[in-house]
Specification:
Layout (H helix, E strand, L loop, with lengths): L14 H8 L2 H4 L11 E13 L1 H9 L4 H25 L3 E6 L2 E7 L5 H19 L1 E2 L7 E18 L4 E6 L1 H12 L4 E4 L1 H6 L24 H4 L1 E14 L5 H21 L2 E8 L3 E8 L9 H19 L3 E19 L4 E6 L1 H12 L4 E4 H7 L6 E4 L13 E4 L27 H17 L3 E6 L6 H14 L3 E6 L10 H10 L7 H12 L12 H4 L7 H4 L3 H22 L2 E6 L6 H13 L3 E6 L7 H7 L4 E5 L5 H12 L6 H11 L3 H13 L3 E5 L15 H6 L16 E5 L12 H11 L4 H13 L2 E3 H7 L5 H13 L3 E3 L12 E3 L9 H8 L7 E3 L6 E4 L4 H8 L2 H15 L18 H5 L38 H6 L1 H7 L7 H13 L15 H18 L3 H17 L3 H15 L17 H17 L3 H14 L8 H17 L8 H26 L4 H20 L3 H18 L2 H15 L6 H21 L2 H18 L2 H17 L3 H15 L5 H17 L8 H11 L3 H4 ...
Parallel strand pairs: 5-7, 11-13, 16-19, 16-20, 17-18, 18-19
Antiparallel strand pairs: 1-3, 1-5, 2-3, 4-5, 5-6, 8-10, 8-11, 9-10, 11-12, 13-15, 14-15, 21-22, 23-27, 24-27, 25-26
Amino acid sequence: MATGKGVAAPPLWPVEARLAALLPDLLVFRKPRGSEHELATAQGVLLGVHVTGFTALMDRFSLSCKSEHDMDTLAHIFSYYISDIVEHVLCFGGDILNITGNVLLALWTVEQNQLSDIITLVAKCSLEIQEKFGIYHTREGQDLQLKIGLSAGRISQVIVGDEQRQYLLVTGRDVDGVQLAQRLAQANEIVLSWNCWKLCEQYMFEVEIMREDEAVKIDEGQPMEYISEFRTVTMVLVSLEFHKTAWMLHLCHLIQEAALYISTVIEKGGGQLSRIFMSETGCMFLCVFGLPGDKKPDECAHALESSFSIFSFCWENLAETKLVSISITSGPVFCGMVGAVARHEYTVIGPKVSLVARMITAYPGLVSCDEVTYLRSMLPAYNFKKLPEKMMKNISNPGKMYEYLGHRRCIMFGKRHLARERNKNHSLLDREKELEAFRMAQQGSLHQKKGQAVLYEGEKGCGKSQLLAEINFLAQKEGHRVLPLKLKEADSKQCFYAIQTLMAIFFEIDMCPAYYRQERLHKQLHGMVEEPLHCLFNDLFFVKFPLSFKVSHMDDLTRQKKVKACFFQVLQKAMRETPLIFLIDEAQYMDAASWEFLGTLLSSVPIIMVMTLTPTFTLCGWAQHFLQSPQAIFVPISKLATTSLLRMACWELGVVSIPQELQIYLLRRCFGNPLYCEVLCQDLLSKNILLFHDLQKEEEEENSKWETLSANAMKSTMYSISPASSEDQELYVCTVKDDVNLDTVLLPPLLKEIAVNQLDQLSPGEQLLVKCAAVIGHSFHIDLLQHLLPGWGKNKLLQVLRALVDIHVLRWCSKSQDLPAEPILMPSSIEIIEQTKEERKSDAGSPLRLQEELSLPQTEVLEFGVPLLQEAAWELWPKAQQTALHLECAWFLRDLACRCGSCHGGDFVPFHRFAICSTKSSSGTSRFCSYKDTGSILTQVITDKLQLPSPQDSFQFQTKSPRSQEAFTREHCRTEEEFLDQLNRKLAQTSPEKDMLTTKPCHCKEVLKLVLSPLTQHCLVIGETTCAFYYLLEAAAASLDLSDNYMAFLYLRKASSLLGQPSAFSFFKKHKVKICQFEEATFCCLRSEVCFNMGQITLAKNLARQALRLLKRNFPWTWFGVIFQTFLEKCWRSCSLSQPPDNPSENKKKLAILQQQVQCLSLLWQLYNLEATASSRRFAYLATVMQENSAKESASEAQVVSTYVALSQFSQNMGDKEKWLHCEQMAIQKNSLCWFSREGLLATAQLMQALAYTKLCLGHLDFSIRLGFQAREICRHLKKPALENLVLSVLFRSAFLKKKFDLCVHVLESQWALISQGHDVLGLACFYSACLDLLLYGKGWLCRPFGECLHFIQHYEHSCILNSQSNVMLGVHSSLAMWFAQDSQWKLFEHHFSKARQLVKRTNASLFGSHGFVRFLECHVLMLQKIPQGVFTHTPSETPRQTLKYFKEFFSRCVTCPVYHQWVSELKASVMRYGKRESMSLTNIIRPFDTCLTRIWIEGEFLEENNSFEGNLQRFVRVADVKENKDEEEIQECIC
């Protein structure tokens, strides 16, 4: 048997200990000898242990589809089983020679006089092994049993190999004896060889035997547990049988010679000779291609060619060789350590290992391979011969087998073809630059009469073949004659092969039958080449023209020159008739002679050559010379743009749009590579992961169940490709199944092989870093990466990172590629008061301190820069090690799972951890438990290391600067002026300690990306669903906080899948994950908010009600219940606010509940506010009263201010002027207490937005603009895009009414930057509504063209989101009607006006509602004017009296929006005049702003704006008037 020598072990022990663990004592403690191999003998006892049933177990696993999971299970079973046996042998003093396959061989070396005693000792060891480990019952139903064989006598040992690699061989008659004993034994028997039986004390015993398959390689310096991998390898087993008459020393020389040759040949192809072991009849060499660090492209082809070379060498050069047999298999295996801690070996385990051994016996004397190797080699079929099927022991379905005949010269030339055909249904994406290079070459060849070559270079899969197919189509369409050819690697070894095939295509003999080829060629050559020269082409085209006297006197060199001259002559003549184009795909495989010919042809014939190259190949000298030609154009192929890649994915899947999670999945894996996108899409379809939904329905229907929301979520996103115009064509969108986690979907085998090839090009240290980073995710922080790397210092880590960044494997997430200088962990300003001495001591040595939290500067965050590498590296980990690493990541990240430092920590779901903790724990928290083989990996997630939020928002600043707060809040702000003066003073402060806007910006988005989202993934992988559910709620809350509704929906959908399908009966409801009532309520509340944002109003109401019920705060269903509950809230509920607080722990739980109650009630009044019925108003009013009471009970000033702002908004919408302004004044007074926390600053921003809104409604436009810019500045600092969008909407409307159209465009561009990257359909609707206003009345100012606005409305007008927003859609349809009226498109005017008429009754007094009502009234007046002309065919005639009813309704409803009253009054007056038969024209209609429209309806001129309308609004104003004389300068400052 043989064992590799140059290997290493875990870096936990000294070097000597590592070697002792990996090598037998026979090698470790041997005496040094000379360089020549020497045969040594000694007395010894051999123990062979064969594990039976293991091959059958592998065969059983091979029939399933979960190959990697099966390999993991096999490796775990074998390692667990064999380690106990190894330890037992070591305890009895044995030396483990090797562990090969399912066979263990151990040796006891003794003196002659002790042989009998040692046999007795070994026999007792064998009996104990059989007794303890004789039968192992697996869960799969296949028992593993032991057969043990013993032999004793003279053992010969020899070391063969070279200076770099040496192998120990143990041979002799007694080694054969132990193998024979193994074969004779049955399961659970111990068999002794005859010699052993003669030497032992025979009165004591009986006997038994052992097992079979494995291999070796170790990377120095890596821990043992980090070495194991799952990967696809190719195995070569070489069997040499010698004549029995050969001398032992001579056999050693033969084995040495064979080992050296095999090792040399195998290593050239990227393989390793891993094991040499003796059999009864000869010697076997086990070689493996594709072990870690050795993966190469085309490894199967290299294995076959190396095997045939070895086969030929052994037959021809090794005397005394009786038979040479070689078998090759390819497939997934487990590569890693097996054995005990004190003695282990690197091995490969898998069904393919058993198969390669069985094939040696089944097909002796041949080079045989399995079907997988045959297909993956991509070698020509004529190099193989199919073998008859044979039965193999314990292998039920070995598959087809082939004999490899070696590389033979093709007996015929190739045929015309390209790798890809042009897609007739879809155009080529993002290849305009590449096609332009081809057109330039066409022009150059036409005008300059010179040859032109275009060489496209790109990585595999970048679309080179598809580009050639497109060029082929375009050239043929223009009348060019195209000669296409695709080359393979084997073609590079055939001289002149490429030109031979191209000319065969040119002569059109490549497709014709062999018997007609000569006649066809004769016709083609006639008139172009002299007939005596036709015989020159006999060998080239496999024809038999008679040999002429002229040719017979030519030598070989002259014939070659003459053939080339004939080709030049033929091609020159052909070019005079039709332009000629050579298309050569994979030109890097072209032979040198063909390159030389093409170089000469390029300079002499005006031909066009188009080639593709792969950059990783080294080209020959003639190819380099060709590339340097001035007529050759080199064009690198760029990656596909993101939009083009997503469009391609839609084409592949047959849909018009794909969900965001699928977009992320494809973009992270493809990096712009079309082949990767195509293969991944096909893989998703084959795995049945996607669901498809028809888009042909006219309208989206509201869902009554959360589980069916996926389709509507997709219908509310933009199309990735434009839908076809054909009305009968079905349009689809797709969604991902709820129970599918795309992050754990395995790569297709083709793509995994590509990525593993790239991984193995790295050094061992770089590979280890990449594999650990892959566990963290696509993006990772270097501190967490260092935590996973055992024994790595910061310097070593940065050095390896620098190397990986330099070769673009990794990249820093920031623009700068310099190494980071700032630490990740920054001290938090919140101290944890309740902490025991033991906790402080235990945390002193931990990687994270209690006072530390994540600041996450971009310079310390990296991401993968190579496609597929992260996914492939993650899949290489065995399941057990994968789980352990994910657990380490969870341990590390749990301390950072909170809001960022600028937000002062705390949960994204307020007081989340306190609400779910056990009341028995004084600290209110529990911890992760350590990893164990049995039981739960994690218990609960929450730890007291997290930054805990204060019960009151001002906690932090009270402890820091109580004097400044007291001084600031000594007098409440009683007017807006006082509030604004204090606000301006606060914002004008320059001290970083006091200035709220000079503190560090919010990093919650980074926390979500790098902490919360990965934590959910880590918990899901390790199977801790309770922890995963907690973090999914946090991630969903964070996403909503960042205005990313779709990602919140995805997180909540994952949480739903963890809980399982709900029961039809609530009393049968039982979740798969155990959660507390608070978490269930939070889950309902978050889903309600998501549904509200998706336009699912009914479902949102039900979920909000359900959440309130779980929070012990019921909301009534009937009008009587509303009345009764309103009475209780005004009387009894307010009395309960004076109750004293509970203990701190209970108080925090109560705060958590109150916060969720406030959120649910806020959602409810907003939901009911969307409906204009009296019943809905009652429900909305009750919700506001309940929200106010809950906010006061929470004792949070910021919460109270936000509630008053919300009540003010509600009152304005309902037209209640007194309540509106009263709530606003209360918010101003309360806001003075909120300056000392981020929540307070957010409440201030909300208040300023409300004030800007109020000033706009009241007509103080300049004041509104100034307030809007101040509010926007705070929103940008707080990173609140949703609130900033509201502020910008108010800013636009104020600037628009002031006719500051340049400012309008500036605001709209800022608004577009906020909403264009997300999926905010409502935000886009408001944006395009504003664009339409600017188009209609903006005096030529333009932000977006009308076609884009119309396309958006047509696409989304049936969306549930917009169907629920009557206020916005009223303005949109009215504006569209006005636009179509200017073009006299009256049918379209009627269409949109009728929709506006249906919406007008569903609106309220809000700004958008009032604006839409005004637009509707303008359309109504216009329609009234045009009715006498008979331009309307579907709209019923209306009288001015009926029209005046709408004006009356406007003034009664929109009393809180007087900014439009003056203009509506003028409109009403014109209608009244028209009713008195006065002439009605546009000259009678006074607009509140100038218009850019010319006369569009009737003759007349527009009157100027009545500039005094603003002054007429003062009777509605209750607050102090504000000076507006400095508006121009101040607004300009705000813009800057």
